[in-house]
Amino acid sequence: MKVAVAGCCHGALDKMYETLELLQRRHNVRPDLLLCCGDFQAVRNEADLRCMAVPAKYRHMQTFYRYYSGEKKAPVLTVFIGGNHEASNHLQELPYGGWVAPNIYYLGYAGVVRFRGVRIGGISGIFKSHDYRKGHFECPPYNQQTIRSAYHVRNIEVFKLKQLKRPIDIFMSHDWPRSIYHYGNKKQLLKMKSFFRQEVESNTLGSPAASELLQHLKPTYWFSAHLHVKFAAFMQHQTNSKEELPKATKFLALDKCLPHRDFLQIIDIEHDPSAGDSLEYDAEWIAVLKATNSLVNVTQSSWNMPEKNGLHAKWDYSATEEAIKEVLEELNHNLKIPCNFTLTAACYDPSKPQKHVEPVHTINPQTTEFCAQFGLTDINDRIQQAKEEGSVRGEYEEEEEEEEMDSTGSAEEPSEYNTDNSGLSSINPDEIMLDEEGGDEDLSTCSVDPSPDHPPDFSASFSDIRIMPDSMVVSSDDAMDSTNEELEKSGLSKQVEEKSLNERPLKRIGGNENGNSGIKKIKRRNQAIYAAEDEDKTE
């Protein structure tokens, strides 16, 4: 089956789906599934805009609300993970995943689903070591700290995913796995994004948690976004025993969704022809959720996951065959995910703007139903209970000074990761950077930019589509200095590139790309996400 993979969507759903329609018209290629690797921005209304961690001037409504309201429907089943620029209050309603609109499914904080027999997993957010060992304690209305920490990856999600034993076909993360750049054309990457150099050379670019998952899961494909640059790599995994067959992962990072950007990739994936066309639960993943339910934490206290170190009575929470069988029996062997999307917030109305509406903490019926069916803890219900008991709100400010003393974790229990890099510590001119001290961001305002009732036809400018061959191959680390011409001659890089239908270049918004990575704490600049070309890219 054909799978389309997109990078940072930034709420531009109309543009993304227009591109898929263009692909079908021009090449008679119709994807069966669309995957989006974060920064999806499922913004329903003005309150959601205020829960998105970007400066106020970048808070634009975009077009998701049309799909949420039912005015439009996604033409292809869409599965996405969260990034670091999301309506966190909306996605928080679905910690275990669920429908954000008809035919658009969110994987949750972490999740695994099946489609036509293909096993698809993912983890939302980006890595920050000072929040990694905390629970999911945040809830709206957010403050200047929690609006950011809400999208930070937590160790419990990584721990759950590491309990999986069965093979994963596709895995998605927003930020890149650390060290993956050593398995692709590193020279070309630094040619396009020179400000990555210091972190690449010091091996601090990307997420160590994602790297840990990559080494454990060894998926056939791994897709990421976040850094707004196209990059492919091929990683051959080491085998643990002579009996184990060698495995390899084809990694691909996608660019952001903009005209003249190579933001969309089409790949052919082997699937089960006898499987249905519905999105399905993964029985092993459900069994892991049930096994790890006792580990759910909604406090901001730092804690470590169980491990075999003599301190924990139990450290293996992987699903047994019996546990998986029980899940199948509970579902009567019908794994189809119910189409139970429900509106939980008012939809944006361009004729009646509500600029001062306050975000509220919502319990989503989908999550309630899911937890009741499988005997799981509703994280939002637990947060709500804790909030009512006064054990959540107001704690962050009291612990702030203590956290500043040790940004890698609590003083008593240092984090297993001794760095605080998520791929954003470099100044990436294509990324929306957040000022650590708050900067010009104002959580009390939002800039609503209503979409027109009849959006323009993007087919004239969205043609940067590449169709991947059966094997996505790039140079090994031994061939980093090879030129693109040499790669093509050796057959190491074969991609079908479509020429742009509109050759008119767009002017860049923003400018200087010279970052000072030597400074530990960088005051991050606010840059426009809608830029056309990288100034430092050499033709």
Automatic annotation (TrEMBL):
<feature type="domain" description="Lariat debranching enzyme C-terminal">
    <location>
        <begin position="235"/>
        <end position="380"/>
    </location>
</feature>
<keyword id="KW-0862">Zinc</keyword>
<feature type="compositionally biased region" description="Basic and acidic residues">
    <location>
        <begin position="486"/>
        <end position="506"/>
    </location>
</feature>
<feature type="region of interest" description="Disordered">
    <location>
        <begin position="387"/>
        <end position="463"/>
    </location>
</feature>
<dbReference type="GO" id="GO:0005634">
    <property type="term" value="C:nucleus"/>
</dbReference>
<dbReference type="Pfam" id="PF05011">
    <property type="entry name" value="DBR1"/>
</dbReference>
<keyword id="KW-0464">Manganese</keyword>
<dbReference type="GO" id="GO:0046872">
    <property type="term" value="F:metal ion binding"/>
</dbReference>
<feature type="region of interest" description="Disordered">
    <location>
        <begin position="475"/>
        <end position="539"/>
    </location>
</feature>
<feature type="compositionally biased region" description="Acidic residues">
    <location>
        <begin position="432"/>
        <end position="443"/>
    </location>
</feature>
<dbReference type="InterPro" id="IPR004843">
    <property type="entry name" value="Calcineurin-like_PHP"/>
</dbReference>
<keyword id="KW-0378">Hydrolase</keyword>
<keyword id="KW-0479">Metal-binding</keyword>
<dbReference type="InterPro" id="IPR029052">
    <property type="entry name" value="Metallo-depent_PP-like"/>
</dbReference>
<keyword id="KW-0539">Nucleus</keyword>
<comment type="similarity">
    <text>Belongs to the lariat debranching enzyme family.</text>
</comment>
<protein>
    <submittedName>
        <fullName>DBR1 enzyme</fullName>
    </submittedName>
</protein>
<dbReference type="GO" id="GO:0000398">
    <property type="term" value="P:mRNA splicing, via spliceosome"/>
</dbReference>
<dbReference type="Pfam" id="PF00149">
    <property type="entry name" value="Metallophos"/>
</dbReference>
<keyword id="KW-0507">mRNA processing</keyword>
<dbReference type="InterPro" id="IPR041816">
    <property type="entry name" value="Dbr1_N"/>
</dbReference>
<dbReference type="InterPro" id="IPR007708">
    <property type="entry name" value="DBR1_C"/>
</dbReference>
<feature type="compositionally biased region" description="Acidic residues">
    <location>
        <begin position="396"/>
        <end position="406"/>
    </location>
</feature>
<dbReference type="GO" id="GO:0008419">
    <property type="term" value="F:RNA lariat debranching enzyme activity"/>
</dbReference>
<keyword id="KW-0408">Iron</keyword>
<feature type="compositionally biased region" description="Polar residues">
    <location>
        <begin position="416"/>
        <end position="428"/>
    </location>
</feature>
